[in-house]
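To whoever is covering the structure queue this week,

Two jobs came back overnight. Logging them here so there's a record in the thread.

Job A:
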Amino acid sequence: MVNRHMRTLWISGIMVLMLLPANLARAQYTHLIKPFSARALSKKLAGPPQTSADTPLTQKRPFRALLMSAVLPGLGQAYNKTYWRMGIYVGVEVASWFVYVDQTRLGRKLEDEFQQFADQYWSEDRYWAALSAESGIDINDMARLREWERQNFSHHLPEEKNQTYYENIGKYDQFNIGWVDARAHRARDSQLREQYTFMRKDSNDAFENARLGATIVILNHIISALEAALTAHLQDQRVRGSVRIVPKRVNRDIVPALALRVTW
């Protein structure tokens, strides 16, 4: 084949005759190929050699390899017998799932801790009292106070303690007065608030690491599947072989020989 390395292994159909003296070879040769004489055999083999079409020596199915690694990274590599690559993809898969599970657990633990901290040290009563004094609205008229809050601030305090609630009280200065150690409204003089901010950051960092782990899991499946399919395709095209019978001259006689051609 063009642009392929070729190795040709010749196996003589009557190799044993090649190792015998010439006279003995003729006698054995005549016995083995009856009813053909040496001349008849020579004529018979004078034409084109009988060949078999090149067939792949490996039968790799790229789509199967792709599906296997898409389900579980490393399976397609095992199918292709590229075991060191299988080890890499399996290792990445295990490590990524470990990071996701571990960091998710840590993030939830830290989230519970900063929420309990806020419930203990941030007071809604202090906050609404400050807004009541600033607006002149009776503190018992919560509907008017909330409306005034929305009109005069870019952020408001949710009625339920949800994610926005716990984010706002530590992030924006308008909620500073709610911290029990704060002295000024719309300032940043609370040490408890600073501590709370770092607690939330640690929790958010853990959740971010968990998201990174999940992203790597997805990418590992995609890359492993594509690599397995490509490798299977290359392996299927790389090694091919054919077998044919060709005439070969031994001393003065022409004998049939079996030729095995392997290309890669």
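Job B:
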Amino acid sequence: MKSKSLFQTLTPGVQTLIYKGQLLTPFQLLQFDRYCAGHKGVFHRDQGCQIMLVRKTEFCFEFRDGDRMVLKPGCAGVIPHGVEHSWRSDDRCPCLTLLLYLNPLRVEDVGDLALVFGGGLAKPFSVDIGLEKTGRLFDQLEEECCRLRPASAAWVHSQLMGFLSWIGRDIMEKNRIHEETREGRIVRLALNFMENHYRESVTLSQLARQSSLGTSRFSEIFHNQIGRSPVQHLNELRLKKAEALLRHSTLSVGEIAAYLGYRTENYFYRFFKKHKGRTPLSLRRAGDGNFSRKS
């Protein structure tokens, strides 16, 4: 394969091919690694969520509590941010892997996929993607690493999001088979309520009542699962809606404030500027729409 010549030895025993194009949010790093047989790493913690997909032979992660995660060809392993681990490649022959680092996903950006890859991810897990999907993904992304083409950033992003979706769907379907966890149900009910009532004056008590919990316990569960407080998430949801309306609607700022349930236009103006670092009008004027808007 012609890409072999593009792999570089950045650390002893490992040859690496790094994607040098632009990686869009939430991805930090994409690379392919060829490990020598029996190569080992030391215990360490990574800054982002790490995902490794194995194409050839086995790869093993080891954790401080004594647990091990062995990835066979076609399997992906997910290690959350801050989990201390070491690794070891197969003793018999070289190992080929795809390595991906990403920031936590947000519900407003990717929906329920954030329940798997959000800030609440705590324990490592593995998923069998299958050899056919793995081979296809490797070939396509490795070719892109070797030769950047037009729209490379968007194309790579779509491939990686599809990869995350394979993992997320497998995990979520398994959870449904073994019954939804209590914490997952609590978060799902709250997210659905926010999505249906974000234009109203939603209180923390209302959200907690969806699961018959007190506000403190509900807030703790929500934060552990999503990585932010219920109030922070609701504010972000409203601001996302506001940004979309400012960019793509003819509603005035006052009409948008009223539509989204803010008390007054002035309050919305100050709130938007505080959290977004710019005024609603400055965002609107920076848009490129061609239709007439009210100010």
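Note for Job B: Residues 152-177 form the longest helix (26 residues).

Please reply-all if you pick these up so we don't duplicate work.
Q.
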